[in-house]
Amino acid sequence: MALLALPEKKRKRYAGGHDRRGQIPDRRSIAERPESIERRAHVGHWEGDSVIGAAHQHAIVTLVERKSGYAVVAKVHRKTSEQVSTAIIKRLTPPASRAKTITFDNGKEFASHKLIDQSLGQTTYFADTFASWQRGSNENYNGLLRQYIPKNRHLSTATDEELKIIEDRLNHRPRKRLGFKTPH
Fold first, then answer.
1. 6 assigned to some structural domain
2. Which of 91, 160, 176, 180 is most buried, judged by most C-beta within 10 A?
3. pLDDT for res 49
4. Distance from C-alpha of 157 to C-alpha of 147, rounded to nearest angstrom
5. Residues 105-162: pLDDT tens digits?
6. 92 is a domain residue
7. Are residues 117 and 101 in contact, defined by beta-carbon separation less than 8 angstroms?
């Protein structure tokens, strides 16, 4: 009677831990964020995300202030952490004294969050995975932005002037949660 050979047990590729590819180093969880931010009691707490164009070529970085709903947008040619962090710093520098926190999703484009923290003197938090509702203001704004820039549009055709017009229109649009006042 012949013995059957058992398959060899596969070794882990990385000894001593989980696969760390795609994880953001030194990320601060939304669970560490103070409860007062959730109540939208103070101005200065922002939510950030990126909107991708057709063929994943260009992106728009959107930042929304949680209490007022005021938003700023910036176009980046590539969704790298360097370009995204530079765009965020550039757009939030004028009201930097008012930027206290930013909450992002777990996209790799936000890996340079420490640079953003140091440049703006604020604190960055990251929402839980697959919990877009934790950044609801930003997700709502991205939906409004898609009324002007649909998903099938190549963002290479979007100009800075056009984005400024869209930003102004959305910041002057009355919101129900603000008692039909505008974020502006």
1. no
2. 91
3. 92
4. 16
5. 988 989 889 998 998 888 999 988 888 888 888 999 999 999 999 988 888 888 999 9
6. yes
7. no
5 lies in a domain?
no
For residues 44-49, average pLDDT: 91
Res. 33 pLDDT band, cuts 50 70 90 = confident
Domain range enclosing 165: 30-173
**b vs e for 1-30, b when ≥16 Cβ sit within 10 Å of the residue's Cβ?**
eeeeeeeeeeeeeeeeeeeeeeebeebbeb
Q: What is the DSSP string of 48-114?
A: EEEEE-GGG--EEEEEEETTT--EEEEEESS--HHHHHHHHHHHHSTTGGG--EEEE-S-GGGTTHH
Question: What CA–CA distance (Å, rounded) separates 25 from 7?
Answer: 37
Token pair 């601060």 is found at 28
Residue 149 lies in a domain: yes
Query: What CATH number is given to the structural domain containing 77?
Result: 3.30.420.10
pLDDT band, residue 9 (cuts 50/70/90): low
Whether the Cβ atoms of residue 82 and residue 113 lie closer than 8 Å to each other: no
Burial 51-88 (b: 16+ CB within 10 A, else e): bebeeeebbbbbbbbbbbbbbbbbbbeebebebbbbbb
